[in-house]
Amino acid sequence: MNWGSGGGWNDATRDVYPDYLEIDFGIPQTMTEVRVFTLQDNFKNPQEPTPSMTATVYGIIDFDVQYWNGQQWLTVPAGSIAGNDRVMRVISFPAVTTSKFRIIVNAARNRFSRIIEVEAYNCP
C-alpha cells in the first residue's frame, strides 16, 4: 500500500543487473521456505497478494534465492526462478541453516528491480 512512500526496495541502477537484496539474521536460523513479493500491477489500489496474482508491469522476472553456508553463497533447491510473472513466489526446499540469505535479481520489468517484501519460514 505504501510503495509511493518508501514501502519496498528498489535498486538504484536502471537496466543494470544483477541486483542484490541481502537479509542478515545476525545468528543462524533454519529455513525451509522463502516468499518473495514484487510490485503488483495496480499498486495504487493494492490487494492482498496471492500466488496467482500477476506482476506483468513492474515485477521481477528472473531471480535466485541463495543462502550463505559460511564459505560461499548457494542457491536453494528450486531457488532459480525464470520468467516470473507473479507478485508472490513461494520457494520451498529442504531445511538449510544460515545466518543470511539473499535475492539476486537478474532481470526485471520496467527497468528496475522492485521487491516489496521477503519472508523466511521454518515450516515442518
Question: Which fold name fills CATH's third level, the topology?
Answer: Jelly Rolls
Poorly predicted regions are: none
Task: Report Rg.
Answer: 14 Å
Taking the alpha carbons of the first and last residues, their distance comes to 31 Å
Give a quick set of tags describing it.
56% strand; 6-stranded antiparallel beta sheet; Jelly Rolls; mainly beta; 124 residues; globular
Describe it.
This protein has strands spanning 9-10, 19-38, 60-68, 73-81, 88-108, 114-121. The protein is globular, with a radius of gyration of 14 Å. A six-stranded antiparallel sheet has the order 1-6-2-5-3-4, with no helix packed on it. Helix content is 0%, strand content 56%. The protein is mainly beta and 124 residues long. The chain has no helices and six strands. It has a single domain, classed as Sandwich (Jelly Rolls).
